[in-house]
Amino acid sequence: MMNRTIKSTIALVACSAMAFGALAACGSSSSDSSDKGKVYFLNFKPESADQWKEVAKEYTKKTGIPVKVQNAASGTYEQSLKSEISKGDEAPTLFQVNGPVGYASWKDYTADLKDTELYKQLQNKDLALKDGDKVVGVPYAMETYGLIYNKSLLKKYTELKDAKVKSAEEINSFDKLKAVADDIQARKSELGVDGAFTSAGFDSSSDWRFKTHLANIPLYYEFKADKVTKQPAKIKGTFLDGYKKIFDLYITDSTTPATQLSSKTGEDANSEFSLGKAVFYQNGTWAWTDLQKAGMKAEDLGMLPIYIGAKGEEKQGLATGSENYWCINDKTSDANKKATKDFLKWVLTSDYGKEAMSKKMGFTTPFKSFADMKSENPLTAAAVEDAQSGKTPVSWNFTMMPSDNWKNDLGSALLEYAQGTGKWDKVKSAFVDNWAKEVAQTHEDQD
């Protein structure tokens, strides 16, 4: 029986305050010596693609083992994996799943990682994805998301006459956030911004922020209230009013008219924020690489929790967890499996690998070998400060979302609502009714 649930997600949160590091994914290529094997990693995280290619090149230079890194386009990982995994000896040797639901689709391809350095380096073995006695996945990146804010712009706002707050620390509830966002929107010309929030784009490079990450917040509160610890067959949508409140705020206090959201991209939102056109930007620790490339300075970035008006949210922290589990392809050759295990060992224990992950990629890792590494990612620093503040972290429950179809239907309903062509009732139906349908369908497909 698979035993990765909310309980171990909480362990992930605790771990994040202890270790700094970074991750993404790495890969393989063709080998000129078949007995030595090769590594092919199908990378899920495009924001760290360049860094992983550098790591791959360095490892090949040191060992002669070919390492290929291929990056799936945003929102197409499952589709890419299905296509690539069928290529026999040329299939990925290293891939990832997002948790128990993702594992269910790929369980026939996952090797046991129990005796690998990858698993041995985990600070807390409960974090691993397991199926009975088999270790099928190891989390490589622990990440945090919330409302990234521009410290300089928010400070400029707080210094305006009759500002709703005098510091970022005062924003500790939805009501406070709404008061500030509404006021920023009304006084945007004074601040020199186009809106309080960046565009809520529904291009595939951006819609996951709302149909997955934002949707996690009402799920978190419902699962917490109902003491849910594994994927339920049905949900009630108890906190969907709060989901509506925050989504309404995103689209009314925005840089962009709602009619234009269908074509707005993740890059658009990143650009708006980095150019100082918006004060708030829903995203996570992984966004630092792109923001840094766009010229933002570490000292200008902070992160607030996403509030939806839930009772007691003043003590709510940021959303911290992982949906990034490394798996080794059990159907590749023994030589390729060994090459992949050796590559991961080098990545986790060599100075070059640790430096690349912690400094260049800016993520937090759950591995013992990273105890002495400090990330230069200001969003990671904000996440650790939040974890140590005594606030209650929001667990990542979207790993229990039943399918990509569920997310996509929810995204479509949200966009129709935003553009005025659909009602909120359709969002509710996509959230609640489709959950039961997709869970039933997924289990039927697996039988």
Q: What does the model show?
A:
The chain has 447 residues and is of the alpha/beta class. It has 2 domains: 6-142 and 322-370, 3-Layer(aba) Sandwich (D-Maltodextrin-Binding Protein, domain 2), CATH 3.40.190; 144-320 and 396-446, Periplasmic binding protein-like II (D-Maltodextrin-Binding Protein, domain 2), CATH 3.40.190. It has 17 helices and 12 strands. The protein has helices at residues 6-16, 49-63, 77-84, 100-106, 117-120, 151-158, 174-186, 188-191, 208-226, 240-252, 266-274, 288-293, 334-349, 351-361, 378-387, 404-419, 424-446; strands spanning 39-43, 67-71, 94-97, 129-131, 134-139, 143-150, 195-197, 278-284, 301-304, 316-321, 325-328, 392-394. Strands 6, 7, 8, 9, 10 and 12 form a 6-stranded mixed sheet that branches. A 4-stranded antiparallel sheet has the order 3-11-5-4. A two-stranded parallel sheet has the order 1-2. Helix 9 packs across helix 16 and helix 16 (404-419) packs antiparallel against helix 17. It starts with 5 loop residues before the first helix and ends with a helix.
Largest sheet: 6 strands, mixed
Write down the domain tally. 2
What is the CATH class name of the largest domain? Alpha Beta
CATH architecture annotation of the largest domain: 3-Layer(aba) Sandwich
| CATH topology name of the largest domain | D-Maltodextrin-Binding Protein, domain 2
Kindly report the name of the CATH homologous superfamily of the largest domain.
Periplasmic binding protein-like II
Number of helix segments?
Answer: 17
The overall pLDDT, averaged over residues, is 91
